[in-house]
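Look over this entry.
=====
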Amino acid sequence: MNAQQLQAIIAAGLDCTHLTVEGDGRHWSAVVVSDAFVGLRPIARHQRVYATLGQKMHTDEVHALSMKTFTSAEWAAQNN
């Protein structure tokens, strides 16, 4: 799996306003911005992203995924 494939999987399962994925084929990092995160704690946000990956986390296609998750408002505040 490459970064574009992983990004497409996340984007297909979660409405993102910004999404970047980087990694080496096993270990990945992502910045995910979605208003689906409004009102959610960080662990629930991560669970939402993991849910888009389904079995890929369990079959080791995606061995590790670290992520930073933001709502659109949080992302805008961070980048001003």
